[in-house]
Amino acid sequence: MNITLPLNRFVFTKQEDHFRGEITFTLVISNKEESTQIHREIWKEVITKLYYENTRDPDNYYKTERNFPFLPGEYKLFLNVQDEDSRKNWKVEKEIELERVNHLSPSLLFIKDKVGKLIQVSAVNEQIDTIWLRTQINIPENSKEEITYLLNRDESLIDSGNIVIKDFGIKNLYYLPIPIINHKRGKYEIELKLLGEVQKTTFLYGIKTKSYWTDDIDEVVGVMRYILTYSEYRKLKEKNDSDRWVIINSYWKEKDPSPETPENELLEELNERVKYSNKKFSILMHGWRSERGRIYIIYGAPQLVDDSYQENMGYNYQKWVYSNGKEFIFIDRTMSGDYTLYEERF
Q1: Alpha-carbon distance 139 to 218, whole Å?
Q2: What distance in Å separates the CA atoms of residue 92 and residue 78, rounded to the nearest whole number?
Q3: Least confident of 228-237, 262-271, 301-310
Q4: Residue 42 C-alpha from the chain's centroid
Q5: Are 8 and 127 in a shared domain?
C-alpha cells in the first residue's frame, strides 16, 4: 500500500538544523463481505526537511509504503492520519480488490534522483535515460523466460525489448530498467509481457509548461470540466492528448481579452484560482477536485467567508457569500477540514 500526503497540511517544528514533523497512522483492514476486522496497525513516521519553504509548497508530498500479505479477495480499508503537533486528523475509507498474481503484478514507476536513489513518481518532468518499474515477478523454477516490454507514446509503439532477470528479488519484487530513447511530451504506456500475462503502466512525460499551472493534461482537462459545456467536455475527453492540448490552447486564445499583449489575463486568473485551490483545499487529494475548489475556480474568491454559520447537527459549516447574491454553504461531516457542498442559495 502506497500513501501520498501533501506536506503543507502538517505542522513542522524548528530543530537545530532542520524542520521536523511527526505523523501517526492507524490502518484497519476488514473483510468486505463479512465486515470482520482482519488487520489493525498503528505506526508513527517522522518527516524532516532542511528548509521551511519545502514544508509549505503544495507540490511537495511525503510518500510512504506498507506491505501486507493478503489472499485474493475484496476488502475494506480505513486509514486515519494524524498530525501529532496540531492533533488534526484525516480519514480515508475505500474498498479494494486484490487479484492473484501468477507471474506479473501491477507496477509502480520510479526514477533515480541526483544521488542515484530510486524515488517513486507518477509523472516524469525531466529528461532522463531510464525509468524503473517495481514489479512482483513469479518465474517458475529453472525457467529461462525473459520479460518483454513495449513502450508506447500516444498509442504509437516507439521501442521494445527484453529484460533478463538476473538478481534475486526481495519478496519477488524487482526493479526493471526501461530505457527512454524518445524525449517528446505526451502520455507513455509501458506494457510488460511474461508467460502470456500482460501488465500496463502509464505515465506523463514533459517539461513543465509555462502556460498552465501543471503539465498534467488529465488535470487540465479535469478543470476544463468546470468551464466547458457538457457536450464540449465530452468531445474533449474523447481526443488523444496532443489534440486535447490543441483544443485547450485554442479555447484560451479565443477568450484572451487582449490578444495584442503577450499576457492572457483570463488564463492567468484561472491558473491563480487552481493554484489557490490546490494550496488551500487539498485534503489528501488535489484541491481542484474538492467542492470548495470547484466553486472557487468557477466563481473566484467570495466576498465573505463565514465560519460561524452553524446548524444543530454538531458539524462545522462554512458559508461563502458573493456580491451577486450567491451563497454556498459547505459542511465538514468528518471534522477533518474536508468540506463538501451542503446547500446553494441564489
Answers
A1: 36
A2: 6
A3: 301-310
A4: 24
A5: no
State the sign of the Cα–Cα–Cα–Cα dihedral 86, 87, 88, 92: positive
- Count of domains forming the chain: 3
Residue-wise pLDDT for 113-141, tens only, equals: 888 888 888 778 777 889 999 998 887 77
The domain of 118 spans: 108-205
Residues 233 and 288 in one domain: yes
Q: Report d(CA 174, CA 272) in Å as an integer.
A: 41
pTM: 0.52
Chain center to CA of 225: 18
In this structure, are 187 and 239 located in the same domain?
no
In a shared domain, residues 94 and 113 = no
Whichever domain contains 33, its CATH number is 2.60.40
